[in-house]
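Study this protein:
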Amino acid sequence: MRRLLPPVVVLVLFACLAVLWNFHPSGFAMRPERGLPWEFPLIVGMMLLMAARWQFVRSKAEINTFRTPATFVTSGLFRFSRNPMYLGFVLLLTAAAMFVNLWCALAAPLAFIAACSFWYIPHEERNMRGAFGAAYDDYAWRVRRWL
């Protein structure tokens, strides 16, 4: 799993949700009469992803989870969350789960949160501490991991 990038995990989870949607056992629906409003988390998730990606491009920061960071981005969205891209992915997966309209579909965003919390984020934090030392520790103390 060391080289499995987060967007690939998100795509695999989307594929699982698509299969689930095709078989859609209606007895397990979150709301039988109609689905939950999935558009809001979709739009907010896309906006977070695009804005955070733009900040990385503008700062010439390394976006690949497994490469050594060269630039330390602390402005914009990164003033409020150390991981706005992961938060954006969670919102996209939540929107997809709400669209599928099954309680078990919520396993997809929860699985991604687990992968981020126990694998991706600790790995990135070790890399950031190695590259930026006390400056990263100070940032991590001031800014929350998710929100």
User: Anything to note?
Assistant: The chain is about 60% helix and 0% strand. The CA atoms of residues 135 and 141 lie 10 Å apart. The chain has a mean pLDDT of 92. The longest helix spans residues 107-132.
